[in-house]
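Re-run requested by the PI after the first attempt was lost when the workstation crashed. Everything re-entered from the original request form. Ligand of interest: pyridoxal-5'-phosphate.
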Amino acid sequence: MQTLRPPLDPSLFNLDGEHLWVMHCSEGPVPRASLEAVQIFLPKESKPWSLRWVEDFQGIPQATKQEAAKLIGVNTEDISLTATTSSGLQIIAQGFPWQAGDEVLAPLGEFPSNVWPWKALAIRGVDFREVPLWEGHQSGSEAWESSPPPPDAAAETRLLDAITPRTKILALSWVRFQDGLKLDLPWLGSACQERGVHLVVDGIQGVGTHKPDLTGVSAFATGGHKGILAPQGLGFLWTDATFRALLAPPGTWLSVEDGTNFARPCTDFRRDWLADGRCLEPGSPSLLGCVALNASLACLNGAEPGTIEAHVRGLQEALLAAISNDSTWSVEATRLRGLWEEDRLGPVLSFHHLGQGPEFLNGLLQAGFSQGIYASVREGYLRVAFHGMHTQADVAHVAAWLTAPSEGRC
Ligand SMILES: Cc1ncc(COP(=O)(O)O)c(C=O)c1O
């Protein structure tokens, strides 16, 4: 059992002994440093003469993009600041050179952020098609009747087999929001490239704890408010430069050459679009959002590379071992252990209800809240999400909650 210090010192956060927050899959806890950065920056907005053009207006977004690029191991020029995951995906959906009859493929049961931007293309004659990832996989009104992903789920093969000559984009979550399955990005990316299909990734449920391998990937979108531990309202989009060149830019005054050179008349519209990620940005960014996101990213980048992921895996292993002989959880502990061994999990352990239904999971959730444990339920799964600040004591607390005798447990 791992006993090492957590890679993110718990004292960096405002968490206390009364609140065990294992739901960054909904909302990440913001570190004190981000709060302080906002407190330092906000007064400047009320004294605008103290805002500096190069250091603040230009420097803060640039520094934020540098931290974002460092977190996922890419070039800063390929990062665009975007409000949310949805807005990153919308930029791609609206900018891609579609032809009527083209198709977007996605796994069955994606989070709606990765569905509505594609469904909105129906008026341009673009179809959206979902692919079940394993035997018995269901979603929508049947979501609670779905079987959970088995360790040998051939999810990637099913997706690749579903590609047709009409498929232009495969859009998927790296880590799925309800069942927690992590898809193999480099496998899918390379296979998509071979087939002339673009792989577009919703990365929000994996980034911050895990580092994506973007081999063959065309775009990676994320909000900042989950594993990245920033406040809601600012995230980023990474795009491969060749893919980006295919997209029609949304068109803002900051996406063109010389946009901020006021020595040249702004109304001189004979300009080229910028080639880097700025060409996809929505105009003046929220500097307040940037200072917070920048500090959260710096906090994550302050940990030794790979240590957060290894730590989370260690905590998951310990929790699964602690509940492995429990009459209610042994089946799920075995299934999740199988997924863990195959490296098919992101930061979320998603315990399936195994036919016991919403009342059972909600009762458990309420019992957790009364003990100061904050987890979440989505579509038939109880989600326990560990991050770099959690400890072995937290694991013991969660295990005690899950295995405590209570009404309705079998
Ligand atoms: C997989 C996934 N994508 C996206 C989001 C959020 O999207 P947005 O950043 O657009 O609010 C969530 C959760 O809120 C999610 O679980």
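Saved to the shared folder this time. Residues 53-72 form the longest helix (20 residues).
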